[in-house]
Design brief:
alpha+beta, Dna Ligase, domain 1, D-amino Acid Aminotransferase, Chain A, domain 1, 7-stranded antiparallel β-sheet, 35% helix, 20% strand, globular, metal-binding, magnesium
Length: 939
């Protein structure tokens, strides 16, 4: 049937700030759903407290409410807008829980609002562990033996009845929070208490642990006619026991028999139909016994899930977009395939390639954290790679991780200690995939690795083959590698850097030149949802090594935007926001906007955002060949954080134009030593400093500038490796640790200004004029990373004299660095003296916050200036903030209860929220002021 014409206005509930377990995949889903509804002429309102996302941008919705995710906020919106329906399925568990709470308070009924996309009763069935288990039994779907417990005594009785090992699953929690495995009776009491406290209903499921079984996820869509399709089947490389968000996953399933798949498919459809009459998306997780393919259901989520974004990017089927249309009444056969534009959306995508997702961890930010993976998700982001084979996609995913790996090993970073390797295989952490390869290199038999990891033999055989190829390669020199063998290496995903390392006496550039001589070039294949059965209209590409290239280069003038890769602490969704606005600005200026990125969670990798999307690693070899193919006017590196910036030097060396501020000037700001020299020349105050390349040199510098000192490496993001030390002994340890993890890096030793306030400015410069976007005052003092500090826009207690100095220094630095585009500067303020700590001539994590607070599209303005299309005087910039905006950092320490939560110069927050106040007497604001006073007095 056609859409429900009684729905003219929809409220979409977002997921709030980024936390581990609920990240920007919901920003992607919410944005896609909003645009889908707007296509139908429906007015869209969004509530979300996250300022860093595209979802809370006016290009996405008609009305954006940057409010706390509470029932009070919901009621405010319902009073201000005539809302016909609420869509709570795009904001993860946070949105669903808020929808239930509002329903229980009678808000939807009071304001005559329909809940669409989900049945509220279905949420109860799926989140209540006992209700879910009983429902599965009723419909004939297998489940693990389990018992519900609402008290400590009930939990003990359940454990005694079921036996060990056990898994504890709290009800109504996200990303496995509070859950875990219990292998021994002695550990049960503590685990049970943790689970009961984590559940908002004080309820846990004590369940048989099917450790070592295989895990699969299915993404489904259903319409009002009860038609159900399976969009994607995702297989976990890691067996049961590791949270799916922390597992390497593969699509389509590689080791699934057709009989088992058909059975699983039928069970998933039966499960979806059993939990209500809603139309929309659904995620189902199964476990499969590798011995006999017995299937049991793990859980069902009647909403867009964390995996929906991955499945959308993997298949080219925009799940959230179609789910939103189904929620307003359309049926699948009435909708168009978004890729082919000629076939129906009522089909199941066919893949003629392989997808591999690898999670990205940030254990370095949580010193002392337990790195062993289990039921509680610990990853902060993820990458996705596309290849013609599993092993090609796996190597490309390893190159995408931003962990200085050139692929799966073959880069000099392997483990050599057999005991350490076997320990890693039995107790998985984020590096286990690399240690499997290391074990093969040391000659560990495949069966021993399989027993230690319980990973399916098929996957292990693929990795073992790499070791055989590398042994073969070492027989050759670069000039006599047979062309067919060279082609095989590239088809198996080997980067030129890996081949260079394996040969031992040649550079990466020499390998690159040699394969070009042999005519071994990357070609680009289209993601088309139908294995080329129908022509695709959407330019969405991945690379491989074959004969036919499907990426046809146009004769338009082009701009490449380099993305920011996987989310991690210090470089998150705010850079993706910047990249999307950069794409939109380039298109508005008449350029063909080309995106290169590998993050499946983000809006920048939505195939509708760029004129051309290359879903490829932001890794030099891949970027270089795309640029050689497309021959753009230039490349924008300013918007993609450190990932994009670090390629500026290589781009410059090849004569490729960098749009905006030049590499030389960006490098001047990044090089802490040269930058301090510039400040001296400009007569801008800065902390006394020195540069060291060894512990001995550092001691000399520290004693000259005076303790306490801030120790930091050059060219880092998110405060990586920064520490404050107060004596020679601590300094020596800090410098030795830095040089061990960042060999060859210069170490900057700054005198630390204790009892100093911190503030920052963001500005845009067009080469002549400078516009201060915003100045912020931090609540936390200097010494705590700006990303971990609450920041108030505009300043509330900095004197007029201090603010004038901040503005004066911002203008001076923008002109001295010949900035064309964005500039972020951080200041320390002490006794009315203003010191510059650092300057970053690029998009910062605060620009989206300022843009939302002032309601000005600053990234678009900056991009048009970078492109040389406009000057500042061309824009009529009107700020709309009444009162103050506050950026609040959000942490995920609950995932790492064992770590020190003390904040310092290294960033630890995973996300942020925005709050507006109109009166400095606001109780919340007065608490912040008191907190700031306490910090400054206590230092």
């Amino acid at each position: 049937m056609p859409r429900n014409t009684s729905i003219n206005s929809v409220l979409i509930i977002g997921s709030g700030p980024i936390v581990i377990g609920q990240a920007c995949e919901f920003d992607y889903s919410g944005s896609q759903a909003a645009l889908s509804l707007k296509e139908e002429g429906i007015k869209v309102s969004i509530i979300n407290s996250n300022p860093a996302t595209i979802m809370t941008d006016k290009v996405i919705a008609d009305h954006v409410y940057l409010l706390p995710l509470t029932c009070e906020s919901i009621e405010q919106i319902l009073q201000e807008q005539q809302i016909d329906a609420v869509l709570p399925t795009m904001g993860g568990q946070t949105a669903l829980n808020l929808c239930i709470e509002a329903s229980e308070l009678g808000l939807w009924e009071k304001y005559n609002v329909k809940v669409i996309g989900v049945d509220v009763a279905a949420i109860e069935k799926t989140e209540n562990r006992e209700a879910f288990r009983q429902l599965m039994v009723d419909i004939g779907v297998g489940v693990a033996t389990s018992k519900i417990a609402n008290s400590f005594l009930e939990g003990k009785e359940a454990a005694q009845e079921i036996g060990y090992p056990l898994v504890i699953r709290p009800s109504y929690t996200l990303a496995g929070t509070g859950g875990g495995f219990v292998h021994r009776k002695e550990d049960f009491d503590a685990a049970l208490n943790r689970g009961l406290h984590a559940s908002p209903t004080h309820e846990v499921l004590v369940e048989q642990a099917v450790l070592g079984w295989k895990e699969f996820e299915l993404e489904l869509l259903r319409d009002t006619n009860d038609n159900v399709i399976i969009i994607c089947t995702i297989e976990n490389f890691d067996p049961m026991g590791i949270h799916t968000g922390d597992s390497i996953t593969v699509a389509p399933g590689m080791t699934l028999s057709d009989k088992c798949y058909q059975d699983m498919r039928n069970q998933a459809i039966r499960m979806m139909r059993s939990i209500g009459t809603f139309a929309g998306g659904c995620n189902v997780q199964f476990s499969v016994n590798p011995e006999n393919e017995e299937i049991i259901a793990i859980e069902i989520n009647p909403r867009v899930s964390r995996s929906s974004a991955l499945a959308s990017k993997a298949t080219g089927y925009p799940i959230a977009k179609i789910a939103a249309k189904l929620a307003i009444g359309y049926n699948l056969d009435e909708l168009q395939n978004q890729i082919t534009k000629t076939t129906s959306a009522y089909f199941e995508p066919t893949l003629d390639y392989v997808i591999v997702k690898i999670p990205r961890f940030n254990f370095d930010k949580f010193k002392g954290a337990n790195k062993e993976l289990g039921l509680q998700m610990k990853a902060v982001g993820e990458v996705m790679a596309i290849g013609r084979t599993f092993i090609e996609a796996l190597q490309k995913a390893c190159q995408s991780l931003e962990t200085n790996r050139w692929g799966l090993g073959a880069d000099g970073r392997q483990l050599r200690n057999l005991e350490d390797i076997m320990e890693s295989l039995e107790h998985p952490s984020g590096d286990r995939i690399f240690h499997i390869k290391d074990a093969f290199e040391l000659g560990v038999p495949l069966e021993s690795i399989r027993k230690a990891t319980l990973i399916d033999k098929w996957f292990l055989v693929q990795i073992q083959e790499l070791v055989h190829l590398e042994t073969e390669l070492r027989r050759y020199q670069l000039n006599n590698i047979p062309r067919d063998f060279f082609m095989t290496l590239k088809q198996k995903g080997y980067s030129d850097a890996q081949i260079s390392w394996l040969l031992g006496n040649v550079s990466e550039d020499e390998v690159y030149d040699r394969r070009k001589e042999l005519g071994i070039n990357r070609v680009y294949k289209m993601v088309d949802t139908c294995a080329a059965e129908f022509p695709a209209q959407t330019p969405y590409y991945y690379s491989t090594f074959e004969d036919e290239n499907e990426s046809i280069v146009s004769d338009k003038k082009k701009i490449v935007v380099l993305g920011s890769g996987p989310n991690r602490i210090g470089q998150g969704i705010e850079f993706d926001y910047s990249c999307v606005h950069g794409l939109l600005a380039a298109k508005e200026c008449g350029y063909e906007a080309i995106m290169i990125n590998c993050n499946p969670e983000t809006v920048s990798t939505d195939f509708n955002m760029a004129d051309k999307l290359y879903f490829e690693p932001v890794f030099w070899e891949h970027v270089r060949e795309i640029i050689e193919l497309e021959k753009p006017e230039g490349v924008i590196v300013q918007l993609g954080g450190q990932t994009a910036l670090k390629m500026a030097k290589q781009l410059e060396a090849l004569g490729i134009k960098i749009i905006g501020t030049s590499f030389e000037n960006m490098d001047l700001a990044e090089d802490r030593g040269r930058f301090s020299d510039l400040l001296k020349d400009l007569d801008i105050p800065y902390p006394q400093y020195g540069v060291a390349t060894s512990a001995e040199e550092a001691l000399v510098v520290a004693n000259r500038v005076g303790y306490p000192v801030l120790v930091r490496p050059s060219y880092v993001l998110g405060g990586q490796g920064m520490s404050i030390v107060i004596n020679d002994e601590d300094l020596e340890k800090a410098v030795v640790n830095l040089l061990k993890t960042l060999p060859g890096n210069q170490i900057l030793i700054d005198h630390f200004l204790d009892r100093a306030e911190e503030s920052e400015s963001d500005s845009i410069c067009d080469g002549d004029d400078v516009h201060i976007i915003g100045m912020m005052e931090h609540i936390e003092p200097a010494g705590i990373h700006s990303g971990d500090s609450s920041a108030v826009l505009p300043p509330f207690s900095l004197s007029e004299n201090v603010q004038k100095k901040m503005e004066e220094y911002s203008v001076k630095l923008a002109k001295a660095l010949n900035v064309k585009g964005l500039l972020n500067i951080q200041f320390a303020v002490k006794d009315e003296n203003v010191f510059v700590i650092e300057a970053n001539p690029r998009a910062s994590r605060t620009v989206p916050f300022i843009a939302k607070a002032y309601d000005v599209p600053y990234i678009k303005i900056a991009t048009k200036i970078m492109l040389g299309e406009n000057k500042l005087k061309d824009f009529n910039i009107e700020r709309k903030l009444t009162g103050w905006a506050i950026k609040e950092p959000v942490f995920s320490f609950s995932k790492f209860p064992e770590v020190d939560k003390q904040l310092g110069p290294e960033m630890k927050s995973t996300g942020e929220a925005i709050r507006f106040i109109k009166d400095l007497h606001d109780p919340y604001f007065r608490e912040l002021v008191a907190k700031k006073s306490m910090f400054l007095n206590a230092q």
